[in-house]
Amino acid sequence: xxxxxxxxxLSLTIFLITSFNLSAAEVQWINALKPEGTGPEEIVLxxxxxxxxxxxxxxxxxxKLRWVTAKYKIVLPVNSTTxxxxxxxxxxxxxxxxxxxxxxxxxxxxxKTGKExxxxxxxxxxxxxxxxxxxxxxxxxxxxxVKDGDLYLWGGKKRGPIYAVFALLxxxxxxxxxxxxxxxxxxxxxxxxxPVPRIFIPKLEGREPFYYYSLNPEWSLYNxxxxxxxxxxxxxxxxxxxxxxxxxxxxxxxxxxYFKDHPEYYGxxxxxxxxxxLCLTNPDIVPIITENLRKILKESPGxxxxxxxxxxxxxxxxxCEKCTAFNKxxxxxxxxxxxxxxxxxSATHIALxxxxxxxxxxxFPDVLxxxxxxxxxxxPPTDLKARKNVGIRLCNSIMHVMPxxxxxxxxxxxxxxxxxxxxxxxxxxxxxxxxxxxQSVPNPNMEMIAKNIRWWxxxxxxxxxxxxxxxxxKNGDRDSMRSWVFAKLLxxxxxxxxxxxxxxxxxxxxxxxxxxLQYNNLIQNNFAKYKNDSxxxxxxxxxxxxxxxxxxxKEFIHEASSLLMEAQSLAENPMIRGEIENSRKAILxxxxxxxxxxxxxEKDSLEAGK
Length: 610
What we know:
Elements: E1 3-4, E2 7-10, H1 24-27, E3 43-44, E4 46-50, E5 66-70, E6 72-76, H2 82-99, E7 105-107, E8 115-119, H3 123-126, E9 142-147, E10 150-155, H4 160-172, E11 176-177, E12 183-186, E13 192-193, E14 198-200, E15 206-210, H5 217-222, H6 249-252, H7 255-258, E16 266-269, E17 272-278, H8 285-298, E18 305-307, H9 321-332, H10 346-360, E19 368-373, E20 390-395, H11 411-423, E21 427-432, H12 446-458, E22 463-467, H13 479-491, H14 497-508, H15 513-534, H16 554-570, H17 574-588, H18 592-608
Parallel strand pairs: 2-12, 6-7, 6-8, 8-10, 15-22, 18-19, 19-20, 20-21, 21-22
Antiparallel strand pairs: 1-2, 3-13, 4-5, 9-10, 9-14, 11-12, 16-17
């Protein structure tokens, strides 16, 4: 294993490290992305040949200079798309990195002279009778097939062809593109394998693991995320673009422009009109918001959605008689939880967004006009339906009261979710993946997040956006692992979390991999031991829990810091070594008071059990 331009070169075969007193099962590298099944044909993409200058030499074959040559050419359609061209370039680039030889790209107007890898709708592909050749792969789906020794990679109208290439490179050949520009690439001059024919269409349109190092456009493309905050060029298929994605009432009806002359546009609080809310039943609001959104969307080609939403924080609905009566008539006092929620105001929001969406749908038919289900708009109206071009961004804030409970185990949340499903089919999820009180210390929530992702995918949401540490911290708890693992689960929730973690540790950390895998497993095992004591209702700050939970025991801190010290001594890459050091410092900085409180709790518990 060696570094070259931050690329780690590995053999395609499974490797085993045995010098750390661990069992073989704990230290194997496994290809967690390997497709099921076996390919029907073995193809040999490259191999050794006799150097052309020595073809007629009298030397014995064993003494002749052996030369690595590509056995295949990469073929593009004559009128190839920019996505197909990007796919061909990336395939050629990484096959050369794997094999050490160049793979030529040609157009399908050229005569076929040997084995080929076809990208997209080449004339060769069109003439085949391949399975699912004519199936709609939507925007980002892909397909891989082999016929008579030729390889075919094609996909949907946006990023599909590119994803076919990266599926082959990652899943069949074991390439990895990790955060911080750490790439793990097989070293196989004689590259032979059995590609598994398959078709795959991702269920999520938006896939956003919001960690600092996942926001690189090239990394995002390689790892098949699709985030509104990572601007993938249109030439590569574009991205989930929201010109406005956050709280926007003040932007759309600016108080500095309207409040002085038209205070009635703004929400009533007690006896006063205030600038941080709107009176959503005022008939003049809809045309103002419509016109301002029209201007924004005209300047935003390729937009997928846009947000009309209250300002953040607090309970800021309008308290005027008309707004209050409208909300009461549509569920304020008859919501799905069987009780009124103070300030419940989603009905007025849905009515407003419906009206604006109706005004804009002919001009912008592919844009969803959205609003938040958050704080006082969290609960759905009982009897309103959203228009087909309206969406809801449902924030998982209700789960803050239980920091380690999945939505799959939360009947209260599921009632809310199903209520919104009766309102609209266009649901975007905003989940909270970090502890912002202590971002760098171990957070034992990866299994919960994986469970959340699977539940939401099973319940047909359009997007999952996981709020990681990107806005605040470059050194959050295992952010490199979280970025990669959650990118994979957002693409294919059927991949196994434990295998993904093992794949990552044994690839990314190099010689320190077995120890970092032990550290990762220690976190999960310790949480399993203390789960009932740690998952207390309403801890300090909800998901933003304090260090006083049972998980952070004195024994855990000692064992975790010892493992990280050993891993740090083994890490070859200075950047990764620094990352491990930061993790160890975070653990050692857990307040002594918190550890002493846990020690006292454990002592009291033991005495109570006598």
